[in-house]
Amino acid sequence: MRTLVAATMLALILAAGTRAAPAGEPAPGFVSTRGAEIVAPDGAPLRLRGINLGNWLVPEGYMFGFRDATAPWQIRQVIKELAGPEADTAFWRAWAEAFVTQDDLRFIRQAGMNVLRVPFDYRQFTPEEYPDVWVEDGFRLLDRLVEWSAREGLLVILDMHAAPCGQSGHNMDNSYGFPHLFTDEACIRRTAEVWRRIAAHYRDVPTVIGYDLLNEPLPEQEGNDPFTPMLVRVYETVVAAIRTVDPNHLVFLSGINAASDFSIFANTALDRKAVYEFHFYVAAPEERALEKYLRFRAAHDVPILMGEAGENTDEWVRAYREILDRHGIGWTFWTYKKLDSRSCMRTYAPPPHWDAVVAYQGLAGLTLTDRRKRRPPPEAVRAALDGLLGRVRFGATTENRGFVEALRIDP
């Protein structure tokens, strides 16, 4: 697969050699940086504009209509209680197959996107309880996505949304309510090793343009301040591990406070191919909201990327996208596909009996014994899960035309 992708160069990054290079020596044919720009292999500026594949490999409760079961492990617990562990495993395997197909990627490209940001959980490559065990099949889904992306003319950013021990303590990192990554050296070493293995796998694949090392580390909340100085050291450790095997790819570095604060990056010599990433959700889409990032870019002469924004009206998305474009900032909006939502590129309706599943996950405050008394019938659970798998497929989803049009670049 890697040979095929390496041979299938995107039109965007031009046909170029993809020979293997010794560690420390960049190979030709890869996206790079030049001052404050991200550049294609021919040296031309490359403006990234794309979408996140949220809820594919890292489920989030709100995208299923859940309010109580929000982290991936909590969502799986609900399905295990309702359908059993074997059915849970089968469901998530089928979900991964159904959620993203080549038809989805073709639609994304035709909508004007040129890059995918792909959230993943480190457990895809190594079980949480067995740090010395590596799952070779963990690359299968990503390899297929990368191959499809090459065919459709899309680039790929790999985003570690869920790092060993948790980098945020929030639901999206699939942890246990605290950023334990910063309390245990073993967690840091494991994070570096996961990225080293990923980099070794994709080092010669130009469709993958870079590695987003930690999604939204250290959000602004009580108790996180002591860990802030450690984040740069974690980045240094991970980047060093990547560079032992891969000199070719970009590394994307997010700031603290939900990727909104670059103050930790006083020293921007972390890597010559680093891109600094911010996220933006809450404030109004105004020019002044970008000022601190523009100042950072100008002061340090480094590229920046808007990695996540959205969860808002079409008008908000359009206004913010236009501001980013005016200032030459690449972007990957959140997100591609969601259940019963307007704030995404495609949506799908809840299947029959899904309301019963949603009601059950809301019983988290009860004992398991009490929840058993109120669980829906097994046949309803099976119908709901099968129905969801059917409706998430591309042909069963519908386009949110307003959202898609809000992301289109004006001619």
TrEMBL record:
Which parts form a coiled-coil structure per UniProt? none
* Signal peptide region: 1-20
Q: Which domain of life is it from?
A: Bacteria
* Any one Pfam family match given in the protein's UniProt record, by short name: Cellulase
- Key word Signal present in the record? yes
Start and end of every Glycoside hydrolase family domain? 92-337
Q: Which PANTHER family match?
A: GLUCAN ENDO-1,6-BETA-GLUCOSIDASE B, PUTATIVE-RELATED
Q: Which family does it belong to?
A: Belongs to the glycosyl hydrolase 5 (cellulase A) family.
Any idea what this protein is called?
A: Glycoside hydrolase family 5 domain-containing protein
Q: Which organism is it from?
A: Methylobacterium crusticola
